[in-house]
Amino acid sequence: MNEILEPGMLVRHPGCPDWGLGQVQSRIGWRITVNFEHAGKVVIDGERVALRLVIGPED
Question: Which of 24, 26, 35, 57 has the greatest number of beta carbons closer than 10 A?
Answer without folding.
Answer: 24
